[in-house]
Specification:
The protein is mainly alpha-helical. The chain has one domain (12-74). It contains two helices and no strands. It has helices at 12-23, 30-74. The protein starts with 11 loop residues before the first helix and ends with a helix.
Amino acid sequence: MENERITVRLPKRDILSIDAFIELGEFASRSEVIRHAVRDYLRKRSSEILESANQIKQVQQLQQELKSIESYLKK
């Protein structure tokens, strides 16, 4: 996979935290930390969006089922 370079501006406290991870040996570079964070965010956010979509689909199905039995409930 081809990588592309981007520039990101972060608050100093975030950079210090990133550098602390590097000093602790968790990551080899700032780029590695950022790549890891972005991958984690995208994975988590994608899962949240899929979960929300599934919940919306379930609500729509329940609404449809309710409409189909609504006439029986009015009797």
